[in-house]
């Protein structure tokens, strides 16, 4: 229960509605309990002598109180259920905002499915507590209170007999409710597994088809679907039993009332109208008593869901937002320096990926980073927008330690095209314009021309309005890469980082595109990771990484003269080209 305390700030935000809801719960129950008094009075009047005006008067009063009770119940729902939706809205926003700020290393260890499940199922469990949970708790309390006062006033003895089955009723609902909860949870898990399978299959449909694994995948799906179906069936059976059981138990609780009450009427200690009024109270109590068990399971479920949500909320954004003395007019030119940078991935202290990296890149210069696979090239460029933090050393932008810059300012200066690119299910234009919506169509066209995407898009029937499928599935690999480069160019960065961003285009196009970048972005510092000498040879400087250290650095000509790693790579690619041209 104390886990739910973290919801206090949210509830306090809506304290006015909560107080109003509380007040209306009292009124709805008060009027609900006053009404049956007039049923008793009408029956007693009829029993004595039939006076139509009295009967009609009592019936009208009963109707009036029922109407008042219904009206305030409406107001209760208007306040409490609406608050639960408002808090759900706030929580969802906070959850998504928090996810956006979590460090990249967090996503290395947490699956997307897990985060989606917390943001949907768990959040829904919390909402059920905030709405129906709170509402039925208050309702149960006041309904019990007022009805019991009225029942004791009529007959304390009969009240005792009427309440005899109550603990059994509540406990049974709690037990069956918990069992239903377990089954529902298991259904949710199955549902998650099915969703995951569908999502993975559709994303990887090309691989499935090319390996002709359709039947294999259909079998896997059918197995999961069967499991889901059986679990649903078993829950359905339990539900059927549950409702039949409830109806019988509720009827059972009327037995002692009719028996003991009947005897009281015969003995003359109670009137027939009194018994009738009492029976109405007993039926009024059955739902609140049932709901004690139900509310308990809602609270339990919400408490464990809140723990799961708090686990995520308690993860601090790794990089503190820095609100330093940054001057909004300050101009950055894009000079970059690494000073003795060392880095290891979490949990791999003894295996640094970068060691003693010191490097100066002048503003506007074009620098290539080459090296064998796994030598640390991507890791090095990931440190620039602070996707990871170095263990030792400093990275400076225009002479300023990047840790002293607000993260937003730093990232706004960088156009980053990662190795694994990503496009949204939106138009090509919106994808290129994604971060900088104020760009007009002409700038999108200009960026796509530099990225050599323009001619391809012009051939599509809808041009830049072409809708992309999930992750840009309706584009070729090379088109996707060029669209991502166009997006980075449209961002108008001071520093453009291309991490093997052209691996899917042919050698000639890569070289031409890079030439276009050199020509059209003379003032932008460009950091280019590539395996192709034909592209990197035009850079102002080439850095060769080996086992996380800078092994060589210089121009194409200088490195060829050194006749070491770079020269080896060059000769190897030259040979490959010759073989290709002969064959
Ligand atoms: N998220 C990660 N967690 C742990 N280790 C990682 C992670 N990413 C990369 N590594 C490891 O860090 C080393 C350097 O990887 P990196 O991706 O920087 O190499 P790279 O030079 O860019 O390689 P490639 O040319 O294949 O892209 C590799 O040994 C890799 O296994």
UniProtKB/TrEMBL annotation:
<feature type="transmembrane region" description="Helical">
    <location>
        <begin position="240"/>
        <end position="266"/>
    </location>
</feature>
<keyword id="KW-0547">Nucleotide-binding</keyword>
<keyword id="KW-1003">Cell membrane</keyword>
<dbReference type="GO" id="GO:0015421">
    <property type="term" value="F:ABC-type oligopeptide transporter activity"/>
</dbReference>
<feature type="transmembrane region" description="Helical">
    <location>
        <begin position="21"/>
        <end position="39"/>
    </location>
</feature>
<dbReference type="GO" id="GO:0016887">
    <property type="term" value="F:ATP hydrolysis activity"/>
</dbReference>
<keyword id="KW-0472">Membrane</keyword>
<dbReference type="GO" id="GO:0005524">
    <property type="term" value="F:ATP binding"/>
</dbReference>
<dbReference type="Pfam" id="PF00664">
    <property type="entry name" value="ABC_membrane"/>
</dbReference>
<feature type="transmembrane region" description="Helical">
    <location>
        <begin position="59"/>
        <end position="76"/>
    </location>
</feature>
<feature type="domain" description="ABC transmembrane type-1">
    <location>
        <begin position="19"/>
        <end position="301"/>
    </location>
</feature>
<dbReference type="InterPro" id="IPR027417">
    <property type="entry name" value="P-loop_NTPase"/>
</dbReference>
<protein>
    <submittedName>
        <fullName>ABC transporter, transmembrane region:ABC transporter related</fullName>
    </submittedName>
</protein>
<feature type="transmembrane region" description="Helical">
    <location>
        <begin position="278"/>
        <end position="299"/>
    </location>
</feature>
<keyword id="KW-1133">Transmembrane helix</keyword>
<dbReference type="InterPro" id="IPR036640">
    <property type="entry name" value="ABC1_TM_sf"/>
</dbReference>
<dbReference type="InterPro" id="IPR003593">
    <property type="entry name" value="AAA+_ATPase"/>
</dbReference>
<keyword id="KW-0812">Transmembrane</keyword>
<dbReference type="InterPro" id="IPR003439">
    <property type="entry name" value="ABC_transporter-like_ATP-bd"/>
</dbReference>
<dbReference type="InterPro" id="IPR017871">
    <property type="entry name" value="ABC_transporter-like_CS"/>
</dbReference>
<keyword id="KW-0067">ATP-binding</keyword>
<dbReference type="Pfam" id="PF00005">
    <property type="entry name" value="ABC_tran"/>
</dbReference>
<dbReference type="InterPro" id="IPR011527">
    <property type="entry name" value="ABC1_TM_dom"/>
</dbReference>
<dbReference type="GO" id="GO:0005886">
    <property type="term" value="C:plasma membrane"/>
</dbReference>
<dbReference type="InterPro" id="IPR039421">
    <property type="entry name" value="Type_1_exporter"/>
</dbReference>
<keyword id="KW-0813">Transport</keyword>
<feature type="domain" description="ABC transporter">
    <location>
        <begin position="336"/>
        <end position="572"/>
    </location>
</feature>
């Amino acid at each position: 229960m104390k886990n739910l305390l973290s919801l206090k700030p949210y509830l306090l935000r809506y304290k006015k509605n909560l107080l109003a809801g509380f007040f209306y719960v009292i009124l709805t129950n008060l009027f609900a309990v006053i009404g049956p008094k007039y049923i008793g009075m009408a029956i007693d009047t009829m029993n004595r002598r039939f006076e139509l005006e009295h009967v009609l008067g009592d019936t009208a009063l009963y109707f009036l109180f029922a109407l008042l009770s219904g009206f305030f119940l409406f107001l209760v729902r208007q306040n409490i259920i609406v608050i639960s939706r408002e808090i759900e809205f706030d929580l969802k926003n906070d959850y998504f905002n928090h996810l956006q700020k979590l460090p990249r290393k967090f996503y290395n260890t947490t699956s997307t499915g897990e985060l989606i499940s917390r943001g949907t199922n768990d959040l829904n469990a919390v909402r059920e507590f905030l709405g129906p949970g709170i509402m039925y708790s208050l309702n149960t309390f006041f309904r019990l209170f007022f009805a019991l006062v009225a029942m004791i006033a009529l007959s304390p003895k009969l009240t005792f007999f009427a309440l005899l089955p109550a603990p059994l009723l509540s406990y049974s609902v709690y037990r069956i409710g918990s069992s239903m909860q377990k089954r529902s949870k298991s259904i949710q898990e199955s549902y998650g597994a099915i969703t995951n399978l569908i999502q993975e299959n559709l994303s990887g449909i090309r691989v499935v088809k090319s390996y002709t694994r359709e039947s294999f995948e259909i079998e896997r799906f059918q197995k999961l679907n069967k499991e889901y179906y059986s679990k649903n069936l078993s829950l359905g059976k339990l539900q059927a039993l549950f409702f039949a059981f409830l109806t019988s138990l509720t009827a059972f609780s009327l037995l002692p009332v009719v028996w003991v009450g009947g005897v009281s009427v015969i003995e003359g200690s109670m009137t027939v109208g009194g018994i009738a009024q009492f029976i109405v109270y007993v039926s009024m109590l059955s739902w609140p008593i049932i709901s004690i068990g139900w509310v308990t399971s809602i609270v339990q479920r919400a408490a464990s869901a809140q723990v799961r949500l708090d686990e995520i909320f308690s993860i601090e954004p790794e990089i503190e937002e820095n609100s330093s003395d940054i001057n909004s007019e300050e101009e950055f030119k894009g000079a970059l320096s690494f000073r003795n940078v060392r880095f290891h991935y979490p949990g791999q202290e003894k295996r640094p990926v970068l060691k003693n990296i010191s490097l100066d890149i002048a503003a506007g210069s074009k620098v290539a980073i080459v090296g064998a696979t796994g030598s640390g090239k991507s890791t090095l460029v990931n440190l620039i927008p602070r996707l990871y933090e170095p263990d030792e050393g400093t990275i400076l932008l225009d002479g300023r330690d990047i840790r002293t810059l607000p993260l937003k300012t730093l990232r706004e200066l960088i156009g980053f095209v990662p190795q694994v690119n990503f496009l949204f299910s939106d138009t090509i234009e919106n994808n290129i314009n994604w971060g900088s919506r104020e760009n007009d169509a002409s700038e999108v066209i200009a960026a796509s021309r530099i990225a050599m995407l323009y001619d391809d898009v012009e051939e599509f029937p809808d041009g830049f309005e072409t809708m992309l499928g999930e992750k840009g599935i309706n584009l070729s690999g090379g088109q996707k890469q060029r669209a991502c480069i166009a997006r980075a160019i449209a961002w108008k960065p001071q520093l453009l980082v291309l991490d093997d961003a052209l691996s899917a285009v042919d050698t000639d196009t890569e070289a031409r595109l890079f030439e276009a970048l050199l020509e059209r972005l003379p003032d932008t510092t460009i950091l280019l990771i590539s395996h192709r000498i034909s592209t990197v040879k035009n850079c102002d400087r080439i850095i060769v990484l080996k086992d996380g250290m800078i092994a060589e650095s210089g121009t194409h000509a200088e490195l060829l003269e050194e006749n070491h790693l770079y020269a080896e790579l060059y000769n190897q690619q030259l040979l490959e080209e010759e073989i290709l041209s002969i064959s």
